[in-house]
């Protein structure tokens, strides 16, 4: 009787697990097919320097243009891509495309730089540095026009992170700490990490009141005290822009300025913005 119970319990637990694994394998196969068929696209969200109003660069954000389902958000597939290792070829595609398209934009907008999001697996891979050098060389984008976004969870082993970051920085690219404030980085080690910019997570930027009012200006000062630039993410309102300017935040990114744009719409935005800057 006991054995029979154990067996049925085993079956009870096994079934949903098998299905989850099968789904993951199916998604992996779909991601590989999507890459081969050229179904991924990059959208770009402009980053604005707050004191001058100029566009300093843009963040490359991937979307999956699925033949039946339409544009799919990275939230729906990046995690599976990371778990299956598909993130490696996908992000290689992202970096190559971002470098190619930014290289084109430099003809008209010579100061732009492009930010790409890294994944933990990639960050720790020794061969990544070589791949990056190859991609920069292949696309002809000067390294200081490429910014790599990392997250706090990638720097939890601080000594190791310093070594990896120094190696990356020796190429000439810049480093931004993405979603700052939501991770687990030890503040005492922040000064030791060779980063160029803090990107404050939008949870500290939106609905500035109460606790947030105490935290946002403190993060901006913290960034400036350790000698890095500070960018506010998820800026949606005029009030938020005014507040950030008042607190001397360097840059901002968010729906107030522009949502992530297709490459064609980005070009239009850049020309329009440039024109407005010249005539007002
Ligand atoms: P993230 O790097 O923090 O990117 C910012 C996300 O906030 C983007 O979502 C963007 O569309 C959204 N956002 C921008 N402005 C606003 C705003 O004013 N309000 C609100 N509510 N949201 C705003 P998206 O494009 O869906 O990307 C989600 C996440 O997926 C990214 O978060 C990043 O972690 C990841 N991701 C995107 N592209 C890539 C990629 O090429 N490689 C890797 N490894 N991860 C990527
Ligand atoms: Mg990012
Ligand atoms: Mg972010
Ligand atoms: Mg964020």
Automatic annotation (TrEMBL):
Signal peptide: none
UniProt domain EAL: residue ranges: 24-274
Recorded superkingdom: Bacteria
Entry protein name: Diguanylate cyclase/phosphodiesterase with PAS/PAC sensor(S)
Species, as recorded: Parageobacillus thermantarcticus
Residues of the full protein shown: 539 to 818 of 818
């Amino acid at each position: 009787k006991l054995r029979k119970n154990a067996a049925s319990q085993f079956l009870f637990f096994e079934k949903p697990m098998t299905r989850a694994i099968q789904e993951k394998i199916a998604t992996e196969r779909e991601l590989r097919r999507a890459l081969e068929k050229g179904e991924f696209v990059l959208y770009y969200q402009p980053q604005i320097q707050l004191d001058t109003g100029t566009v300093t660069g843009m963040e490359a954000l991937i979307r999956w243009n699925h033949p039946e389902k339409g544009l799919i958000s990275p939230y729906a597939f990046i995690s599976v891509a990371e778990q299956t290792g598909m993130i490696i070829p996908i992000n290689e595609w992202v970096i190559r495309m971002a470098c190619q398209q930014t290289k084109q934009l430099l003809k008209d907008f010579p100061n732009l730089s492009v930010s790409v999001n890294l994944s933990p697996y990639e960050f720790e891979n020794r061969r990544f540095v070589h791949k990056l050098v190859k991609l920069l060389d292949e696309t002809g984008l000067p390294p200081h026009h490429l910014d790599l976004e990392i997250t706090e969870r990638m720097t939890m082993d601080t000594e190791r992170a310093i070594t990896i970051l120094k190696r990356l920085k020796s190429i000439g690219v810049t480093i931004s700490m993405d979603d700052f404030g939501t991770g687990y980085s030890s503040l005492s080690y922040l000064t030791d990490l060779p980063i160029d910019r803090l990107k404050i997570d939008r949870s500290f930027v939106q609905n500035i009141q109460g606790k947030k009012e105490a935290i946002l200006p403190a993060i901006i000062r913290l960034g400036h005290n350790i000698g890095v630039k500070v960018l506010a993410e998820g800026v949606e309102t005029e009030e938020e822009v005014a507040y950030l300017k008042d607190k001397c935040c360097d840059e901002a990114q968010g729906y107030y300025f522009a949502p992530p744009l297709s490459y064609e719409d980005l070009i239009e935005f850049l020309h329009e913005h440039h024109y407005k800057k010249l005539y007002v």
